[in-house]
Design a protein that fits this description.
- It is a single chain.
- By secondary structure, this protein is of the alpha+beta class.
- The protein folds into three domains: 217 residues, Histidine kinase-like ATPase, C-terminal domain (Heat Shock Protein 90, 2-Layer Sandwich); 134 residues, 2-Layer Sandwich (Ribosomal Protein S5, domain 2), CATH 3.30.230.80; 137 residues, Heat shock protein 90, C-terminal domain (Four Helix Bundle (Hemerythrin (Met), subunit A)), CATH 1.20.120.790.
- Helices cover 38% and strands 20% of the residues.
- A nine-stranded mixed beta sheet has the order 1-6-5-4-7-3-2-8-9, with helices on one face.
- Helix 18 crosses helix 20 and helix 21 packs across helix 22.
- The radius of gyration is 32 Å and the shape is elongated.
- The N and C termini lie far apart (96 Å).
Length: 632
């Protein structure tokens, strides 16, 4: 290998993107106890580079030239203290070097970095979810050199960095396409100069790589891996650790898979699937692009990792490969979008994954609960987008927090616990489960022992009204005015006592409600006595045909709704403040101060809902006036 000497005239010195510098700072400072994974990551990248060129060569054979056998070679120089990892894959040009090694363009990077605390121990798991790939080289190397030439281009480029904030890039010379990565090791990393140690690492982490990994030790050259696609092997031949390391390769993540799904479909179409459910939530799971990370192969040849038609968005947490026997090798992006073969594979993937999740939910509730905590919010997107049997299966798989206790509950379990007289599945939506539990709208339901589902994911606002019911039971938000509790028998109370309580609440309340309606006619849609309140004086609810209150807040926050719906103010006839006010009105009739009381009650209901008071000065004035009279 020869290369031009870098001079100040020919070399560029560039700075890493700020995000890269932050990652490198953590990586270099011994983030990982198992530093050997640097070799796994660099081999994985080399394998990807070969896969990409093999696919391009299907339509551009000239890119291969005479070098048609792909391979990854690894050699050491003990005197120079270097490890060299070379491949004859697609290579990079100058712009790709800068983009791939100097910046991080992955979706969700900004949000991910915002979660970093600066505490290395806490950040380890986060970085592991993100994956550091090439940058793991700096765990063992004081300097990294990348010499690369892109297939089909004449110019080679040399990239050098010590990982401390900047890198140098310049034109160079290289005999063939692909990349040569040279690691100049740090002190204390001598173990990685031993061929036997490298072979051990390769066989542990990269045995599944379908490209030969040739280990050079002096004059001795040996292939250190089996070089066959893991998914083509019989499941009886594959050890759990083999699956685990293939997951690390295909996902570029550091967690272990929570579930492995390996099957072969035979019949009208034939394909093999090897899919993984991650053990930790990927950092970019909720990025707006919602891309899946499943790779498509055709007869063991990599085609694309961007076939969005292969897996529905609500299963985008899956990692792995689908290998088709029926698609043509030169399949285009347009063909993938309209291919009936891809659609049938998609249906097969959905059926297989949901079926395995059903089994998991039945046999291992604790493990399934952990899965749901990680991916339930994503899986629920399928409740909105799917129809037919898939939607029915997703409804069975769905789990929820509720007022019944801390454990997750299925819809079937909820229906099994419904009270006498209850024919509705009640729910409440919001951003925080703890806050929802203290909502005044739940008071009457708690008093009668009626279970309410606590829905805290944004998608809940959309799938619930879209589905409408489950097993003949309608869904109903407790924040709507039509949530009727009168037919539900209260716990441990005779029916005649319940009637007496209702009659007591009606005393003197009619006149007060009429005056409150008059005072607030421009602010609310209606004022009525409440069945749902037991402790709070007032609350706001949506009319039966209006938008749910939490959804309205979400849309207003995202500037998708200009005007607000008028709400219904419900008053608790048994609350001391309301009773006192009703008695006051009955004795003295309409007085000017009822207006101030009405607005104070309305503002109180707004505050409890987490909404701003529209006129803080007026609120303060009215409150001061009532305090003054009360203290007189």
């Amino acid at each position: 290998m020869t290369k031009k000497k870098i001079t100040l005239m020919s070399a560029e010195k560039l700075s890493f993107q700020a995000e890269v510098s932050r990652l490198l700072d953590i990586v270099v400072n011994s983030l990982y106890s198992e530093k050997e994974i640097f070799l796994r990551e660099l081999i994985s990248n080399a394998s990807d580079a070969c896969d990409k060129l093999r696919y391009l060569a299907l339509t551009e054979a000239a890119l291969l030239g005479d070098d048609t056998e792909f391979a990854i070679t690894i050699s050491v120089d003990k005197t120079a203290r270097t490890i060299i990892i070379a491949d004859n894959g697609i290579g990079m040009n100058r712009d790709e070097l800068v983009a791939n090694l100097g910046t991080i363009a992955r979706s969700g990077t900004a949000a991910f970095l915002g979660d970093l605390s600066g505490d290395a121990k806490k950040d380890t798991n986060l970085i592991g979810q993100f994956g550091v790939g090439f940058y793991s080289a700096f765990m063992v190397a004081r300097e990294v050199e990348v010499l690369t030439r892109k297939a089909g281009e004449d110019t080679a480029w040399l990239w050098i960095s010590d990982g401390r904030g900047d890198f140098t890039i310049a034109e160079s010379e290289k005999a063939g396409r692909g990349s040569i990565i040279t690691l100049r090791l740090r002190d204390g990393m001598e173990e990685y100069l031993e061929a036997d140690r490298l072979k051990q690492i390769i066989q542990r982490y990269s045995d599944h790589i379908a490209i030969p990994i040739k280990l050079i030790d002096g004059d001795k050259v040996e292939t250190a891996n089996r070089a066959s696609a893991l998914w083509t092997r019989s499941k009886s031949e594959i050890k759990p650790e083999d699956y685990k390391e293939f997951y690390h390769h295909v996902s570029h993540a550091f967690d272990d898979p929570a579930e492995t799904i390996h099957w072969r479909a035979e019949g009208i179409i034939e394909y093999t699937g090897l899919l993984f459910i991650p053990g930790a939530r990927p950092f970019d799971l909720f990025h707006p692009e919602r891309k899946n990370r499943v790779k498509l192969y055709v007869r063991r040849i990599f085609i694309t990792d961007d076939c969005q038609e292969l897996v529905p968005e609500y299963l985008r947490f899956l990692r792995g490969v689908i290998d088709s026997e029926d698609l043509p090798l030169n399949v285009s992006r347009e063909m993938l979008q309209s291919s009936p073969v891809v659609q049938k594979m998609r249906q097969g993937v959905v059926k297989r994954v949901l079926g395995d999740l059903e089994k998991k939910a039945e046999k291992d509730a604790e493990s399934y609960a952990a899965f749901w905590e990680n991916f339930g919010a994503v899986l629920k997107e399928g409740l909105y987008s799917e129809h037919g049997s898939e939607q029915a299966t997703l409804l069975k798989l769905a789990r929820f927090r509720s007022t019944h206790g801390d454990a997750l509950v299925s819809l079937a379990e909820y229906i099994g616990r419904m009270k006498d007289g209850q024919d509705t599945i009640f729910y409440i939506t919001g951003e925080d489960g703890a806050a929802l539990l203290s909502s005044p709208q739940l008071e009457g339901f708690k008093a009668k022992g009626v279970e309410v589902l606590l829905l805290t994911d944004p998608i809940d606002e959309f799938w619930v009204p879209a589905i409408g019911q489950f097993e003949g039971k309608n869904f109903k938000s407790v924040t709507r005015g039509g949530a009727d509790l009168s037919r539900v028998k209260a716990e441990d109370k005779p029916e005649d006592e319940q009637k007496d309580e209702t009659a007591e609440k009606d005393d003197d309340i009619g006149s007060l409600v009429a005056l409150l309606k008059l005072a607030l006619k421009d602010e609310v849609k209606d004022v009525r006595a409440s069945e749902r309140l037991t402790d709070s004086a007032v609350c706001l609810v949506a009319d039966d045909g209006d938008m749910d209150m939490h959804l309205e807040r979400l849309l207003r926050q995202h500037k998708q709704l200009d005007s607000a719906f008028k709400r219904i103010l419900e008053v608790n006839a048994s609350h001391p403040v309301i009773r006192r006010l009703a008695t006051h009105v009955a004795a003295r009739g309409a007085e000017a101060e009822i207006d101030d009381a009405a607005y104070l009650l309305l503002d109180q209901a707004r505050i409890v809902e987490g909404e701003p008071v529209p006129d803080p000065r007026a609120f303060a004035r009215r409150l001061s006036g009532f305090l003054e009279k009360g203290l007189a």
